[in-house]
Each structure stands twice: as structure tokens, then as C-alpha cells.
Amino acid sequence: MQYRAISPFNLSLAALAMVLASPASSQSVAEDVAPAVETDPAVVTARAALEAAPVFDGHNDVPIQLRARFDNQINNLDFTDTTGTGSTHPEGRVMHTDLTRLAEGKVGAQYWSVYVPVSLSEPEAVQMTMEQIDVMKRLIARYPGTLAYAETADQVESAMADGRIASLLGMEGGHSIGSSLAVLRQMYALGARYMTITHSANTPWADSATDEPEHGGLSDFGMDVIREMNRIGMLVDLSHVSEEAMMDALNVAEAPVIFSHSGARAVNGHARNVPDSVLARLPENGGIVMVVGLPGFLNDERRQWYAERQAEEARQNSLYLGQPDVVEAAMAEWDAENPEPQTMISHMADHIDHIKQVAGVEYIGIGADYDGMPTGPVGMEDVSGYPALFAELARRGYSQVELELISSRNAIRVLREAERYSARVADRAPIESLLPSEE
């Protein structure tokens, strides 16, 4: 429950006169208007942690929402409140993110994901990525009192100290560089501070977690991509890539890697999550898993339910070819008999617990994936819900120091260490490898 103190300045003059006339009444009114005191120790600990170290979230898909809903025409968009955007989505979904709810969620820094679909050709992907960088920079610039464009760890900390949300850019999908290290360097110059090596499909040089393997992880050129990212100071994001590609990247990387929005595969077996074999290597690398909020990656019962539903839909389509109305009716009946399992905040906390056990609390962050999924867990449906997660962690025994590491201190450390490595190797020449042409 939330409490709001009543300001004494809202009292009428008559009421104020009565208060001044009666000491007993004055004491009674003072008690009535005093702010409520939070008594839940977990909530108190979580609030203190988020006050000291606001959330630095690793992945938010607002940029693609701006494209899909508004065709990147944002001059008339009120980003202070997007709760009325249901009409801009074919299923009536309201955006998860706006400035009001970011403040409620105690968000102090955000990587905005400049995602583009894997269905695009590489030249098209490069152009669309630049357009997504442009629209997000324009949105940030419209709210200088609330958002602060950032490219460095120092700028993140400065924005947080000013009470503004540090806003960084991350590319989601290696196809965004068109298999060109020159384009990679120019994307960094435009502000991209991480790149997810693949998305849902392989690139010509790296295997995705959700595609048929082609390269056995990373190709030789793919390993040079990692080296060049380290050299220029761009974070290597291993969400979406295969386990073999994760291992190859860790073998090559000289700077910390990130998983911008992933969970623990031992808790939920989805291929998008990080296996223990990789988690065990994080302390040596210094990287971070920014735990995702997508229900299908958190709740294994939900993952199993979805697989069963897909199987049933395939069965109905096979039985009733060319009869979509029959299939739709059959699936409606199946859905009524098999409701989707709810995913709770506790499921997200389970992933954090596991990563802490295998790797350590120093290698955990948050990367919820808001506006890139239908909804977050119950109680964390949008960006306002982070305090509830941190209260859950406090109830599980996490100290304020540990909560501050998870909320933002680990993420800032990783960004700063990538910058320091880049500075140490500043005298190295750019890598000029070319993707081998197909024979």
C-alpha cells in the first residue's frame, strides 16, 4: 500500500485557526498529517539501496516501439505518460515505459536497445539501426531535465547524481554492422556502447542460440569482431548467442562481457538463458548477467506450457488443413482448459539466487526487456516494478550492499573496465579483417 502525506498548506484558514487555538487539536492534526512510516524491513532496505544506487537496466526496447507505433514520428509524443498508447498496438498493449513510471521504478540509467529485425538484409539493417539511433537520440534530447544522453561510466554517475536518467544506446543483433568492422567502428562513434552478437538468427560469423549452428560458435572473423569491440571500448553482449559462441567470446575477450537480458538455464532451460558452464567463467572475465523479466525465460512451467500449446496448435493445423475457424475454436477450448501459468517476481529472484550461487553477486545486474515482451512478471508488469523485485531480494536475505551491486554498481563497473581496457590498447591499429567471401 502507498501512503501520501497531507501537506499542512492544504488545510483551510479556518481549520488552521482551530489548530492554533487548541494545543491538543494541534497535536492530533500533526499526527494525522504525518507521513506514514514503512515498517516492512525488506521494503526499507530496498528503498535505501535504490536511493543510493538507482537501477541501471541493460535492455529496453522503446526504440522499436517508436518505429512500430509511430513510424518514428515522435514530435507530438508525450513520453511523460504513455499509458494511453493501447490504440497504437494491434493487440491493445500499452507501452511499458514512460518518464513517470521510470521514476516510480527508481531507474537511474538505461541502455535503450536499437533493435532491428533479422529478416532485413545487412544493408537494410545498417540503415535501420542508424534510424533507430537517431530517433532515440531525439527522444532523449526532448527531455533534458529528466534524461541525459551518456556514453561513459562517468557520465552515467554524473547523470544519476543530477537526478536524471542516464541514457545509453545498445545495438541488438550483429547483423546491424553488415559484417563490416568499419561499420562497427562508426556505430560506436554514433554512440552504440554494446552490441548483441546475434539476435534470433545466425549472422555470417556467429551462431545464435535459437538457430541451427553454422559456425560452431564464432568464426575467425567473429573472433576479430570481439577483439575490435574490446579495442574500441564497445561491450560484447552475449544474450541471444549459442553456448559455443559464448565460450568462444570468453576465450577471446580481454574486457568484461555482458548478457544484457538473460536468465539462468539451470532454472529455466530456454536456450536464451546462460548455462552454468558459462556462469562459472564470469568471475575470471569480470562480466555480468543482467537478469531478464520475460516470463517464458523465467518460469520453466510457463516454458513447458508454451511448448505444449505449440504442439497442440500444430496438431490442429494438421488435422484441419485449410479450416482456420475450426483450428481457432479448438485452440480457444484448449486455452480455456490449460490456462497460462503465472510468472511471479519470485521466479525472477530465483534466477538471481542461482547466478549468485554459481558466479557471485558481483556479476549480476538487471536487464528486464520491457517494451520487448508482452508483459513482465505479476507485480512487475512495467518499468515501475523494480522496487518490488528488490524488496523480494531483501526478504531473501540480500544486504543493502548486495542490492546496490545488483541495481547499478556492477553495471557501472563493467562499463568502466571496458573503457579502461580500450584506453590501455589505444595505440593498437584498427583490425582490418574482412569477412571471407563465399566460394
TrEMBL record:
Q: Provide this UniProt record's keywords sorted from A to Z.
A: Signal
Q: Which residues cross the membrane?
A: none
The name under which this protein is listed is: Dipeptidase
The record's PROSITE patterns line, in alphabetical order, gives: RENAL_DIPEPTIDASE_2
Q: Which InterPro entries match?
A: Metal_Hydrolase, Pept_M19
- Signal peptide boundaries: 1-26
Annotated source species: Erythrobacter rubeus
One Pfam match: Peptidase_M19
> According to the lineage, what is the superkingdom?
Bacteria
Q: What is the lineage of its organism?
A: Bacteria, Pseudomonadati, Pseudomonadota, Alphaproteobacteria, Sphingomonadales
